Amino acid sequence: MRVLLVEDEQGLVLTLTDRFRSEGFDVDVATDGKSGFEKALTGEHDLIVLDVMLPKKNGYDVCRDLRQKGIETPVLMLTAKGETIDKVLGLKLGADDYLTKPFEVIELLARIEALIRRSPHSSSGISADSFRFGAVTIDFKRAEVSRDNEPIDLSAMEFKLLQHLIENRGVVHSRDQLLDAVWGYDAMPSTRTVDVHIAWLRQKLEANPKHPHFIQTVHGMGYKFVN
Known about the structure:
CATH topology of the largest domain: Rossmann fold
CATH architecture of the largest domain: 3-Layer(aba) Sandwich
CATH class of the largest domain: Alpha Beta
Structural class: alpha/beta
Number of domains: 2
Mean pLDDT: 85
Shape: elongated
Number of helices: 8
């Protein structure tokens, strides 16, 4: 997932860049509104985190001009202003969400994940019905998976597990969380079941199952999907 961070406060840029990358995002940075606008025009990003108070071109103008140019990338605006009128202005100009400084990074990440999941426009091959990563294509409506245009046979639980990881990409899931989300509260599998299904998915979908690129282990915590 590619995030464009348009922010001129260097301390915040460093903090957010490090955290975004640790969550599996590819981060592009602009430190003024003019360069941020130019980078956003490429349409290569999955989400734009846009500060309001920027040199050369403020965030409101950046957001407005992007929408006028037909750029539909989700925009989350950051500002030190908390008045309702400022929030309304940002949303009316085309922003998708709004977060007032100071904020908790965990809340920002949650909002980013929600925006990306809702967005039908993504440079990573995401749509409401399909998803692409590496050589793999998934058709969610037909529950079909292919790799290098060759069909891949997944069990129902393998498909459900893969879909859950993709829909919550970048998020670390414990084995117990995956059991509850995929197998359900009434099921009685062990956490070893998760490990086995992860191994099967890697064997079928990863170029190098022993060193997986997409379905990653977070030691001591669980698993996450990174694209």
